[in-house]
Every structure is written in C-alpha cells, then in structure tokens.
Amino acid sequence: MNPMLTKKSEGFTLIELLVVIAIIAILAAILFPVFAKVREKARQTSCLSNEKQLGLGLVQYVQDNDEQFPCGVSVGTLGPGDMFGIGWAGQIYPYVKSTGLYDCPDDVTPSQPNATPPMYEVSYAMNTHIINSYLDPSIKGDPQGPLGHISGFNAPASTVMLCEVTNNLADITSINEGINNGATHLSVVTNGAGGSPPDGACLGITKNWYDSTAKLSTGPIQESPYGLDGTLGRHTNGANYLMVDGHAKWLQGSRVSAGGNPAYSATDAPNMSPNPYSNAAGTEFPGNSTYPQFAATFSTN
C-alpha cells in the first residue's frame, strides 16, 4: 500500500476558517466598544486629575494673595475697570508650572506654541461669580462673590470653580497672558448660562462681551442652550467640575445650576416660582417637579 495515499491531509478546512473568522469578528464587535469606554474613562480620569492640580494652584494663589481669587489680567478688556477673572490661567501658572495641566485629553483644540505670543490650549473656564471685583454691588444680577474668602461660601463643596470648555487659547506661561504683546485670546470665564442668542456662555477678549469662539463642553447647564460645543458633555454625556473646596467630580449638565445671583428672591421675579437662580445647590432648595435639586452650582451663596 502506498503510504502517501493513507496519510491524512493537514490544515484547516474552509468551513473551519470561516468559523474562526466569524468568532473573531463577534469578539471584536463585543470588545471594541468596551476598549473605547475604558480609553474614554482614562481620559476622563486624566482630566479630573488636571482639575485637581489646577485647584491646588488656585488655593496656593489665594493663600499668597490675601485670600483673593485671580481677578483677571487686564482692566478694560470688556470695558473700563472690568476684571471679571478673564486671564486667570496665567496668574496661577507660576504655581502649576505645566501647560499640560490646562489641556483635557478629549479637547482637540490645537495649541500654537510658535505663535507670537505663544498660545496654549486651555480646556477649563473659571466661574466668574467667585471673582470679587464687580464694581457696583447695587446692580441687581451682578454677583459679588464672597470677597475672595473661601469661608464666605455657603457651600464650597458644591460651588463650581472650574468647568470644561473647548476652543480656548491663551499665553498661560505669561502672568498677564501676553496682553502687552498683542494677545488676541485670554483664558475665559463663564457664568454657566450665557446671555441671549447669539451670545455664548464664556467671557473673553475676542468679543466685547461673550466669546464667540470658546464653547462649553458640559452639555446644557440648567437646560441653558447657549454657548455649547454641540455635545451633551465631553466625557460620556457629562463633564468634570472642580469645586471651591478643591475636589473634582463628573456631573451631567442638568445636575448643575447656573446659579446667577442668590440675592434674587421671589419678590425680584414674581413671575418665577420658584426662582431657579436663587434655588441652587447650597441654598437649601429641596427640589420639586419643575426644578430639580442640583448637585452643584455656579452660585456663590
């Protein structure tokens, strides 16, 4: 008998190969979304760490400046004697000494380090309500903040200090953000809501009031549609927030109150019951069917 005729053929049949390919395809379809979620979770965690480090820089700044928060780098950016906090990032750079801490991994805004002055990505905006340099406390709607003192906050653990934005550039390596060298952008601040259309939600140098470039990456805060980047939040339909007490956490925009001035009351706005601007986190509002109880607020009181 010829041994060549009785030897079994080696290798896979076509059907076996197709079965293996099908199994690999099924596993890939199951695992790729999982890998994507794990990668996004890592980016979210990295962003959260950035905010915590920036928070440490802000706390050190406050301690070194008679408990005053960064009030901004340029009088007259928006009008005579404004100082809404615009340009806060450059003021705390000496304490953090890293441009990377201002950059969320999910923010695709390109830095321009070779520009004059150099421009770096700033993925975060400061809450303008905590700045203590509003000039006229008698103007209803201009929140004065707690005059820079952390002890002045009613709810520091739920009061926003930084939130996420995109399309924001600034010369953060300069304490005045290059304003004397022809800077066209500064690190922005926000009140969480913005103005009327077509206004944005961020105050910056590129416009007289609202910056048309910088956008909130938080999703709608307290249902406000203004100044958003078109997502429901940069990190899985939500965003990271740094609180005044220094801790940071992820929240959906609907769980955050724009706050406004807590001095508003029902008598200030008789057609609003309850007034969503005064009923923010930290103001003992329990929530109801119309307005939820918020987990965080831009309100300082």
What does it look like?
The chain is α+β, with helices and mostly antiparallel strands. Helices cover 21% and strands 11% of the residues. It is built from three helices and eleven strands; from the N terminus they run αααβββββββββββ. Strands 2, 3, 5, 6, 7, 8 and 9 form a seven-stranded mixed beta sheet that branches. α2 (14-64) crosses α3 (88-96). The chain is globular and about 80 Å long. It starts with a helix and ends with a strand. Residues 133-144 and 261-274 have low confidence and may be disordered.
What would the keywords be for this entry?
single chain; alpha+beta; seven-stranded mixed beta sheet; 11 strands
Secondary structure topology:
Layout lengths: L2 H4 L7 H51 L23 H9 L23 E2 L2 E4 L32 E7 L2 E2 L18 E2 L11 E2 L11 E2 L22 E5 L4 E4 L4 E2 L38 E2 L4
Parallel strand pairs: 2-5, 10-11
Antiparallel strand pairs: 1-4, 2-3, 3-7, 3-8, 5-6, 8-9
